[in-house]
Amino acid sequence: MGERPVSGAERATVATTPLPGTVRVLMYHSVSPAPAERGFRRYRVSPGLLDEHLSALAGAGLRGVSLTDLLEQARLGRDVSRLVALTFDDAFADFTDHALPLLGRHRAQATLYVPTAHVGQDAGWLGTRQGRLPLMDWPELRAAGASGVEIGSHGHWHRELDVLPAREVLAEARLSRTLLEDELGTAPQSLAYPFGYTTRAVRRAVHDAGFASACAVGYTTSPLPGLDPFAVQRLLVAPGTTPEQLADLLTGRQGVESTLRRWTRPAWRTARRVRHSLTGSSHVRAA
How far is CA 123 from CA 63, 70, 135, 137, 158, in A? Predict the structure, then answer.
């Protein structure tokens, strides 16, 4: 008899071996069946693919949780080898229509990071080449929070914080936190650095603004013990990330992309600082 075809989610289940002493955080952006502009394609996954990812996690005995929940379990010394934090940057409006129902169906929790100046408007930082995508409004954010989604900050203006003076970083972080607390009734505990860039001064300012954690991009996992809650690393999930590749990410086999990005980031940061000092402009990316 021929072998029964094995789905991608099933293959991922077989391949996934939880890493001990590791905090694993996945980073999504837009979830939509609509085609994305060319410059934004790597930041949009289809609802079907997210469904497969969540099925693969469940099949491997992994549970999707919020970032704050994961860090609290780690702080208490509990086993986090079966936990994976699910994070969604930018609070795109499609989260309500596509991501939220899937999270509910799979009984998964997540953290949604909101750039507060853009609530109910569009993603102005993307520019016209990547599309002016609409963001959730305050009623939608309240509904997401009521469903169990953790609402965190993605800064106020979605600016690159590492090229700003520390006082501006502190002011932006405080403003974003205050707005979220005023509108949602709960002070946010976590922040995601816009574009993923951070420095020691930025981390200090975010701490001083009252946050308990913050995450970058990193393209890797964060080891325990000794985890810095203000430098949590995340794994970017792209539209081409299959359930098998997701398993590779979660078991530490991320491939060469993470290494290449670590090599290029310092030089790119220097170039951004120079450009920012001359023009005040910011690099356009979705994170």
Answer: 30, 29, 7, 12, 9
